[in-house]
Amino acid sequence: MSKPSKKQSFMGGAAILASAVAIVKIIGAVYKIPFGNIVGPEGQTYFNVAYNIYNVLLTVSTAGLPLAISKLTSQAHTQGRENQKRRIFSTAIWLFFAMGLLGTLLMYFGAERLAAFMNEPLGYWPIRALAPAVFCVCLLACMRGYTQGQGNMTPTAVSQILEALCKLGLGLGLAWYFLKLGFGLDIAAAGAILGVTAGTMLSLLYLICYLLRHRERRISPDVPDSSGTLMRQILAIGIPITLSNSAMSIITLVDTKIVLGRLREIPDLADAAAELFGQYTFGMNLINLPPSFVFPVTMSLIPFAAAALTRRDHAEAGRIVSSGFRLVAVLAIPAGVGLSVVGGPALLMLYPSRQADALAAGPHMRWLGIACIFMCLMNLTNVILQTYGKEMIPIWTVIAGGVTKVVMNYVLVGNPAINIHGAPISTLCCYLVIVGLNLCFVWKYSKEKPRYLQLFAKPILASLLMGGCAWAVYGFVNRALSGGHSAYGANAAGVLAAILAGVAVYGVLVVALQILRAEDVRSVPHGGKMIKLLHLK
Known about the structure:
Helix content is about 85%, strand content about 0%. With about 525 residues, the chain is mostly helical. The two termini are about 45 Å apart.
């Protein structure tokens, strides 16, 4: 089956997947902002209740097993064992078929109980609308693992983008149409969810057509392993990875249940629980963006560290890890500070039809902006520890952070004087705990110890100066224009001016303080151009 497809290099494949992730995240942001304007915070809560349940089933079904298929397929592909590859796929597809069918039936027929478990009965229809997606995504995961195992990342990238585009076009249209017909917000959220389900179906159809078109018919003399042997190998590789990736999804699900439950226990807020939680997710939509752009940078550096460790060149591995820290610090810290400073006004600009909700969500951004920094660092440190062969450590640190988040939300959100304002505080503390522990373990297992003070001091200083400048520019422009323009126009102009001023000031400080080195960006896409542009040494 691999014959028509030219095998891509490891870095080329990683670049394709990283680019696809970035595109999908941008499409997701374009989707979430108009979606929030259409259905408001209450509709977003119904959507998130269904999506968090879906995420758990999805992670359990597809987090580790596709990687196992990819690894086994890659081994067979390298050895030229075509029959082995076919047997791996035919064995795995039935495993994923069974898991997907079970997950779909659970969501569809258990929708009422699942909604009640999440303390949000109106999540019933969104849960049912999303149920078929579990089956489709399980089959997708198997097919993506199979093609990736042969060194071809393009089918995965194309299918992911198709899925996101369908969610954007169909989901938003259905949400708007159902509201226009007079249906409630829960049905509108179900319409948006149908866009997700349709996207998985379209993506599955594309991959089926791709596999049929590129099917390898060549006769091979190899004798494949039995299906039972292959099944045991798939499970042995996939289950530990699944446990690692499932931790945060399960914690998020439990945390959503606790936040909604605790809000409903406050007499004055019981009827507004869904709306308050939705306002909190307005802020979460923004802070999830920077980690999406940091991820490709991280993934482009780490393979070099793995290669250095394989050669036992610990000095080179330490240099690459330090470069990774500098790059993420340069990107994540100013993004987090900027969101903390002008995140509230940015929400007012992005959600013009939900001004009251955006205004209520503004205070959350002061905490969530800083949490964004630690989210980016968590992604980096998790990958570094996995590169060092310490795959179990990120599992336990994520669990530690998740338990912190659950306990703090139970205490803070249940306090009537704090209520939903406790959620962003617990989110910050969650990622702070994870990153704090990860940094300790990275230092412990690194032969060349990273110098954290040197790595983070200058980016923090530059980001604080940038934040002060952005805050001052926003205040000046907003006040100057508020007399002769609409409040929305003055605020939007202030936000855009603050962003431009912040970027300019921070860019100058990066060069003036010599925060980046040429070696830090040489390995990332277009690194040579960046070195010349910033005059890096």
